[in-house]
C-alpha cells in the first residue's frame, strides 16, 4: 500500500499479529505501544535498522529484504524466530546475547564474512547461505544447534567446528571451496552428524569421493541428499580398517 507512516497503529494496543510487508516504511517506533504483539512481518520495506523497543511477548519477526546493516537493538526476551534474509548485514557482532529463546535465525543473502557474534545457546536452526563467509568462529556456544546451512559461501577450511556442537545433525556446505579430504576430516568432532552436503566443492570431483567421505565419517546416513547404502558403508569400513592396520 506504499505506507510510510504507521502512527495510527498506536491506538490498537491489543494487536497480536501485524503484517506490514511491501510498503515504504523506515520507522517502526509506533509499534512500541503494541505490548501484546506476538508476530510481526515487515518484509520488503526501507528499514535500515532492526532496532525496536523491547516487546515482552514477541515471538516471531521477519525483516526480510530491507536495507538493514547490523543486528543491534534486537532484545525481545521471548523471540523464538528471527529472519533478516536478504539485507546488507556484514557482521553478527551486536546481536544480543539475551535472546535466550531464539531457536531459528535466518541470515541468508547478506554480506557476512565470519560467524563471530552468533553466541546463542538455545539456537537450533541457523541459515547462513549466500553470504561471503571465509571463517567459522565462535561456534562453540551453539550446543543445541541441529541444522546449519552454509551453502554458497567462501569457505576453504573447516576449522571452527567443535565437540561442544553435540546436537548438529544436518550440515550443508554446498558450493564452497573445500578442496581436500583433510578438511572433511575436521567434521569428525561432530558426534551426531547424520546428513552432509558437499556438492559443488572441489573435493566432490575427486575419485571415489563418496567412499572417501564415508571412510572419514562412518556415522553419516545421507551424503549429498542420497542415503548411504549398506554396501557403501561396508566397503568404507573395510578400507578404514585396512588403513588403520597399515599405520600401526
Automatic annotation (TrEMBL):
Q: What keywords would UniProt list here?
A: Leucine-rich repeat, Repeat
What is the name of this protein? LRC23 protein
Entry keyword annotation includes Chloroplast: no
SMART domains tied to this protein: LRR_SD22, LRR_TYP
* Region spans: Disordered: 226-248
Q: Say yes or no: keyword DNA repair present.
A: no
Q: Which residues form a coiled coil?
A: none
List the PANTHER family hit by this protein, alphabetically. LEUCINE RICH REPEAT CONTAINING 23 (PTHR46652:SF8), LEUCINE-RICH REPEAT AND IQ DOMAIN-CONTAINING PROTEIN 1-RELATED (PTHR46652)
Amino acid at each position: 500500500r506504499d505506507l510510510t507512516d504507521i502512527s495510527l497503529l498506536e491506538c490498537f494496543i491489543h494487536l497480536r499479529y501485524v503484517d506490514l510487508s511491501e510498503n515504504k516504511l523506515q520507522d517502526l517506533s509506533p509499534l512500541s505501544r503494541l505490548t501484546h504483539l506476538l508476530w510481526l512481518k515487515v518484509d520488503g520495506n526501507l528499514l535500515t535498522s532492526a532496532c525496536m523497543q523491547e516487546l515482552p511477548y514477541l515471538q516471531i519477526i521477519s525483516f526480510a529484504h530491507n536495507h538493514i546493516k547490523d543486528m543491534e537493538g534486537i532484545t525481545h526476551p521471548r523471540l523464538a524466530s528471527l529472519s533478516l534474509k536478504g539485507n546488507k548485514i556484514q557482521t553478527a557482532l551486536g546481536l544480543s546475547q539475551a535472546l535466550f529463546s531464539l531457536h531459528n535465525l535466518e541470515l541468508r543473502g547478506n554480506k557476512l564474512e565470519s560467524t563471530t557474534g552468533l553466541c546463542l545457546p538455545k539456537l537450533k536452526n541457523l541459515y547462513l547461505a549466500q553470504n561471503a563467509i571465509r571463517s567459522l568462529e565462535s561456534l562453540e556456544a551453539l550446543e543445541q544447534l541441529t541444522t546449519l546451512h552454509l551453502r554458497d559461501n567462501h569457505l576453504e577450511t573447516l576449522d571452527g567446528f567443535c565437540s561442544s556442537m553435540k546436537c548438529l545433525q544436518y550440515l550443508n556446505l554446498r558450493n564452497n571451496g573445500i578442496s581436500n579430504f583433510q578438511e572433511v576430516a575436521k567434521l569428525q568432532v561432530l558426534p551426531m552428524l547424520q546428513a552432509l552436503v558437499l556438492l559443488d566443492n572441489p573435493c566432490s570431483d575427486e575419485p571415489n569421493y563418496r567412499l572417501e567421505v564415508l571412510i572419514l565419517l562412518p556415522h553419516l546416513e545421507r551424503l549429498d541428499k542420497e542415503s548411504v547404502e549398506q554396501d557403501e558403508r561396508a566397503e568404507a569400513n573395510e578400507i578404514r580398517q585396512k588403513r588403520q592396520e597399515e599405520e600401526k
